Amino acid sequence: MILTVTANAAIDKRYVVTSFDVGSVNRVKSAEFSAGGKGLNVSRTARIAGEDVIATGFLGGHAGEFVQEKLKAEGIREDFVWCSGETRSCINIWDESHHTQTEFLEPGARATQQNQDSLVKKFTELAADCSVAAISGSMPEGCTSDLYKRMLAAGKKAGKKVILDTSGKTLEECLDDHPFMIKPNIDEIQMLVGRKLNPDDTKELLDAAKELHARGIPSVVISLGSSGSLMSCGEGAFQALVPRIDAVNTVGCGDAMIGGFCTGIARGLSMPESLKLASAVSAAAAMTNRTGFFRMEDMKKLEPLIEIRKLR
Ligand SMILES: Nc1ncnc2c1ncn2[C@@H]1O[C@H](COP(=O)(O)OP(=O)(O)OP(=O)(O)O)[C@@H](O)[C@H]1O
Ligand SMILES: [Mg+2]
C-alpha cells in the first residue's frame, strides 16, 4: 500500500475559451473538473500503475466531498482530515487562439492547529500499513513546515520511506528531517544549493545532488523535463534518458514521476529499476492532456525505450 499526503487539495477546473480577454466577459466553451493537488496526482498515477493507494490530507465543504467522490470513482482509498473551510479551486484557462495558459490558484482554506495535529496522527496510523509514503505540494494557510517535519519524523520512527516533493522554503526547511527521497527540478535544486547550475552539465548536477546526500537524504533525483533525470542514491549515480515524444501537457509530470517511484518501491524494485518505471510513467503522463494521468499502453511502449545509464 502507498500513502499519499495532499495538504492543499483542490478542484482543478480546466476552461477552454476561444479567446481570453482580460477585462471583458469570456464565455467558456468547455469546462472539465477533476480532483487536483499534487498528492492526488501521485495517487492517481500510482493507482493506474496498479498499486493500492490511500490518500490523506485536508478536505472541506462540498468541494471536499466532490474530491472524495472523484477519488472513490478512481479506486483510490481515502481518509482525510475535515476542516471547516471549503476546499479550494484551481482554474486553468486554455486560450485556443493564442495557445496560452492562464492559471488562478486559490490559497486554500485555513487548517487549524487541531486539524494539523489530527493529520499527523492519521499519517502515523495509516503509514503503519504502507511501505512508502509521499508528501506532495504546498500547504494551506495556517500551516508551517512544522506539519511536514512532524510527518517525516513519524515516518522515520516507523522505519518507512517517506518521499517529499515540495518547493521553496518548505523544502529547504525539511531537508534536515531527512526524507527518503526528494525530486527537485532544475529551479528547485538551484534554490537548494544556492547557485546557478547548467542543466546540460551532468557533473555539476550530480555534485549538487551529492551535497544534498551529505545532508542525510538517501535518494536525490533531479528531474530535467524532456532531458530525463539524474539520480544519486545508495546504489550509485544514474542517468535516465527518455525518448523524444509528442508532449501535449507536461504539468504534473513530476507528480507522475513520484507516483512511478512509489510504485517501484512498493513492489520492492531496486532504485535504478524504480527510476526506469518512474521515467516511463512520467513521460507517458506528458502524452495526455489530463494532468496527473497516463495511459497504460503509452507507458508500456515507452518503458523499453528508457535508457538507464550508471554514471558513478
Ligand atoms: N517533454 C517531455 N518528454 C518526455 N518526458 C518528459 C517530458 N517532460 C517531463 N517528462 C518526464 O517527467 C519527469 C518530470 O518532469 P519535470 O522535470 O518537468 O517535473 P516537475 O518540474 O517537477 O513537474 P511538476 O512539478 O509540474 O509535476 C522528467 O524527468 C521526465 O521523465
Ligand atoms: Mg515538481
From TrEMBL:
Annotated keywords: ATP-binding, Kinase, Lactose metabolism, Nucleotide-binding, Transferase
Entry EC no(s): 2.7.1.144
Sequence ranges assigned to domain Carbohydrate kinase PfkB in this UniProt record: 11-287
Top enzyme category: transferase
Reaction equation(s) it catalyzes: D-tagatofuranose 6-phosphate + ATP = D-tagatofuranose 1,6-bisphosphate + ADP + H(+)
A GO molecular-function annotation: ATP binding
UniProt GO BP: carbohydrate catabolic process; D-tagatose 6-phosphate catabolic process; lactose metabolic process; small molecule metabolic process
Domain of life assignment: Bacteria
InterPro entries linked to this entry: 1-PFruKinase (IPR022463), PfkB_dom (IPR011611), Ribokinase-like (IPR029056), Tagatose/fructose_Pkinase (IPR017583)
Pathway: Carbohydrate metabolism; D-tagatose 6-phosphate degradation; D-glyceraldehyde 3-phosphate and glycerone phosphate from D-tagatose 6-phosphate: step 1/2
Gene Ontology, cellular component aspect: cytosol
Keyword ATP-binding among UniProt keywords: yes
CDD domains associated with the record: FruK_PfkB_like
Sequence similarity: Belongs to the carbohydrate kinase pfkB family.
UniProt-recorded name of the protein: Tagatose-6-phosphate kinase
Taxonomic source organism: Bilifractor porci
Encoding gene, per UniProt annotation: pfkB
